[in-house]
């Protein structure tokens, strides 16, 4: 039977694969991942080397356009991003309308969606030039939205960035600058954030990226697709895990630091509690990003002179899990987010913002995947189902039910 027959309009063969555990949705030349061996590469470059030697904006360029940029290409790209970094002042009114208690991920996703209304020419993009313009716009405006989301939460005045700074330096300053205080850049914090953003920048067809591709496949615009990706990232089984990890570590500390008690809870099938930051759909070996982050957490805390008892609890849990048959048999290792929150906390970033920081890092991956999907002219994403409901029923008038 040829593939066209299989895809016949009246049915054909449908594979049922809940969670798409074994279903490929696309061909992609962006990120290579071998979950058994613990290998992750962006466009063929190993994550270890990129985290060590590249800066975030170079990785953004690499993911989206497929090659490491020359100095001229990078300067031009950065200049284009900076020229589009102003966000319409009316966005501030939308932000104003949110309650202070709103979760930053909900705010960020709404504001990103609102960008569509203020930039209508970025919606229907077909040519590479139009795509490029939409891409530099979102890369320019997104850090402003991230910073404003935090500042709204903290009741601080909103400001635009400082375009004389690097991409990561700028977003940090926009987030952290306090009114009436001189802002002094801390290079340790800048470098640590750069590394964290690189490690989060893409991860092939994860939940949020698949969401971006499927929304984009209907030719909804880039900003709408990214907004949907932010919502998908929010959940604790995906990007929201970084917040959940820290809250879990805090709870263990408050409860006297008894890690064994929480290990037992995680293994107890009658309890829905899971060890947050452990396990991964694809990695059945150490998440290579977790190794880099664990080392970075040690260095950043030492450099900043922060002693955080939560780091010891995290290391204790990891050691116990590595020696526990439940975790060993199921190949549950720490994932990227087990240690990232500890670094964010040391940087002074509030816990509710952790997943927003993940979104800032994942933005280039979402863009690269959306662009690849559009350039390859992929068809609209539309999975099938196996219907298990009632067969045909006669309608009954309301007084007869
Ligand atoms: N704690 C305890 N048990 C776990 C955990 C955990 N963190 N993760 C998986 N398991 C167990 C499951 O109960 C299941 O056991 P069983 O076979 O006895 O029923 C087995 O391991 C397989 O788990 P699944 O849920 O089937 O694996 P899946 O691939 O669907 O889920 C996921 C992967 C969602 C990441 C899961 O491991 C999890 O919930 N982890 C905690 C949340 C987390 O850290 N998410 C971040 C992922 S990384 C990221 O998105 C950036």
Question: Oligomer, anyone?
Answer: single chain
What's the helix-strand series? HEEEHHHHHHHHHHHHHHHHH
General shape: globular
Strand order of the largest sheet: 1-2-3
The helix count comes to 18
Taking all Cα atoms into account, the compactness measure Rg is: 22 Å
Bound molecules: acetyl coenzyme *A
- Tell me the distance between the termini: 47 Å
Report the sheet with the most strands, covering strand number, pairing sense and barrel closure.
Answer: 3 strands, antiparallel
The strand count comes to 3
Helix fraction by DSSP (H/I, runs of at least 4): 55-70%
Average per-residue pLDDT, rounded, comes to: 93
Helix/strand class: mainly alpha
Strand content: under 5%
Low-pLDDT segments, ≥5 res: none
Task: Explain what the structure shows.
The protein is mainly α and 401 residues long. 55% of the residues lie in helices and 2% in strands. It has a three-stranded antiparallel beta sheet with strand order 1-2-3. Strand 2 and strand 3 form a beta hairpin. The longest helix has 27 residues. The chain is globular and about 70 Å long. The termini are far apart. The mean pLDDT is 93. The protein binds acetyl coenzyme *A (ACO). Acetyl coenzyme *A (ACO) binds next to loops.
Characteristic key phrases:
tricarboxylic acid cycle, Citrate_synth-like_sm_a-sub, mainly alpha, binds acetyl coenzyme *A, citrate synthase activity, 3 strands, transferase, Citrate synthase, about 400 residues
